[in-house]
Amino acid sequence: MYKKHVDGRELDLSMSNLAEVSVKEIKALSKVDTIDLSCNNLEQLPEDFGDLADQVIRLDLSKNRLTHLPASFGRLRSLQHLDLRGNQLRLLPPSFAHLDRLRWLDLKDNDSLEPGLARAAGDCLDERGCRRCATNVVAHMRQVASGLERERQARLAEERAEAAKQQAREAAERTERREAKKQRRREQQQQQQQRRQNQADDGKGRHPGDDGDDSEEDAEQSRASASGGSRGRCCSGFVRLLLTVLALTLLALALVGLPMACVELAAHPIGDAPEGSARARLQPVCRWLLPRLPESAIEAAAGLLAQLQPFRAV
Description:
58% helix; membrane; single chain; transmembrane helix; leucine-rich repeat; 314 residues; LRR_domain-containing; 6 helices; Leucine-rich repeat, LRR (right-handed beta-alpha superhelix); mainly alpha; 6-stranded mixed β-sheet; transmembrane
C-alpha cells in the first residue's frame, strides 16, 4: 500500500487523510529514510513506532492532531530532522532526551506546550532557530528525564523504607506474640507449682503455727551447736599447743641428755653391767655416738655435768 508513495529514499504520505500508521509496512521499505506524514488526521502514533530506529533520518509530522508521542519515540537514534509544528502537543516523552543526533526541530503552533518546554523550543522562525530549538529541547528533556529518575529513585527509596518498617512491625508483633506465649507458659507453670505445693501442705496436715515453732527450735539448736563448736575449737587448740610444747621439751631433753649420758659413761665406765639393763643397752649407743659428736657438744655436756655434780652428791 505504501510502496506506491515511495520516491527514491522518501516515503510521502502527506495529505493522505490517514488516521493511523502501519509501522510494519514502513519497515518493509528498507531503503526509505525520509517519511512525510504531514497534513493528516493522526491523533497518535503506534507504540512500536520506535522500531523504525535504524531507518528514519527525516520525519515530518506537521499539521496533524497529535496530543502526545509514544514512549518508544526516543529509540529513533538516527533521527536528525523532525517537524512537529501545528499539532496539539503539550509534553514530549522523557525518551526524547536520547535523540542525540537531532539537529533540526520545529514545535511552532503547539499552543498547549508546557511553559518550560515552550521556552526551550523558542520561536523557530528560521533555520537557525530550528537548529537551536533541537539543541535546547533535547537538553531540556535530559533535565526532565533526570528529574523523573530522581523522583523514581526517591519513590523506590520510600517504598523500600516503608517495606522495611512493615517488616520491622511484623517482626515486633511476632516477638510480642512469642513473649506473650512464654509469659502465659510461665504463669501456667507457676500455677501448677503452687497447686502442687498446696497439695503437699494439705497432705502433711500441718497448721500455720507449726512452721514458726519449728523455725524457733531450729534456730535454738543452731545457736547451741555454734556455742558447742566454739568451745570444742578452743579446747582442741589448747590441747594442740600443750602437745607441741611437750614434744619440743622431749626433743630438747633428747638432744641434750643423750650426749650428757654418753659423756658420763665415757668418764665412769660401768664395767660389767647386768645384761639387759639400761646402762648395758646405752653403752653401744654411746660408743657409736661419741666419735660423731662435735667437740663443742662434748664440752658443753661435760660442763653441764660438772654444774650438776653438787646436786647429785646431795
